[in-house]
Protein 1
Amino acid sequence: MHYWGYDGGWFGGLFMLIAMFLLWGGLVATGVILLRRFARPPDRRGDALKILDERFARGEIDKDEYEQRRAILRG
């Protein structure tokens, strides 16, 4: 079958297959890059408060130190 005046045979089919892989791979890579660039960073403040709560529950810090650090973390 002729496309644009060229009969590629098996080479043309192989070329089209490779081109499709490159096209879809490029689209997926672009999507991943955009998601990483514009995604919100994880909330580290929640992790810090959780660790602070655990340290207080284990008795590693007293109530005054707990409340002072909690106020700092909450801003």
Protein 2
Amino acid sequence: MPTLKLRMRTSAAILAGAAALTGLGAAVLPATAANAATPQTVAAQIVPANQLASFNQIISHESGWNVTATNPSSGAYGLAQALPGSKMASAGSDWQTNPATQIKWALDYMNSRYGSPNAAWNFWQANHWY
């Protein structure tokens, strides 16, 4: 039985992230601990809807939505693979562990450097980095 419960929780979390990214929002799913605050649902609340798909593509490629992802070669850190990671402190002192702080920093970075997440994703597709 414990395996079934784990699978159900994992499935709920995946569906919550997918629902948020497809514009259906987490409201389609019942509010549970499993789908309440994934980085993807946080991003859906912060990133403009018309930029969310591109933002998702970049973060998926850079970190797989892992808040503590660290590149062993460069030391790039977090969802957006900031280098150095400590520059995300400009968005909040909890930059090492808070997905909302990292998402706010990443959105600001994409807007200031490229004009938008959509433009950043166009650059990423051409160069495989941003």
